[in-house]
């Protein structure tokens, strides 16, 4: 993991297309701005984890339903 220290208003570039800027800091929170191509999906990690978990659960339920339907044939 690369660890960088940035001050208010300073940025980090990732490749040619992504720029992350520190917008503000307050208490233990940091507001960042992300300038990236519109076709690039950007998610908060906890939201992405939640989506992934829900998809796994839905896939599991689908498998269970299929096995129930096969038993009823």
Could you explain the architecture of this structure?
With 73 residues, the chain is α+β, with helices and mostly antiparallel strands. It has two domains: 1-38, no CATH class; 43-73. The protein has one helix at 45-71, and strands at residues 11-14, 18-26, 29-35. Strands 1-2-3 form a three-stranded antiparallel β-sheet, with no helix packed on it. This is Translational regulator CsrA. Belongs to the CsrA/RsmA family.
Supply database-style keywords.
single chain; 73 residues; alpha+beta; 2 domains; three-stranded antiparallel β-sheet
Q: In percent, how much strand structure appears in the residues?
A: 25-35%
How many structural domains in the coordinates? 2
Derived from helix and strand composition plus strand pairing, the structural class reads: alpha+beta
- Assembly type of the shown chains? single chain
Tell me, briefly, the overall form: elongated
| Unreliable runs | none
Main sheet summary: 3 strands, antiparallel
Number of strands: 3
Order of helices and strands: EEEH
Rg calculated over all Cα atoms: 21 Å
The number of helical runs is 1
How far the N terminus sits from the C terminus, by CA atoms, comes to: 53 Å
Subunit structure: Homodimer; the beta-strands of each monomer intercalate to form a hydrophobic core, while the alpha-helices form wings that extend away from the core.
Pfam families: CsrA
Subcellular location: Cytoplasm
Organism: Robertmurraya beringensis
């Amino acid at each position: 993991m690369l660890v960088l220290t940035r001050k208010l208003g300073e940025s980090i570039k990732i490749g040619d297309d992504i720029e992350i800027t520190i917008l503000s800091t307050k208490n233990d929170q940091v507001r960042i701005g992300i300038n990236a191509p519109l076709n690039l999906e950007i998610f908060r990690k906890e939201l992405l984890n939640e989506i992934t978990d829900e998809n796994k659960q839905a896939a599991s339920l689908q498998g269970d339903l299929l096995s129930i339907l096969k038993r009823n044939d």
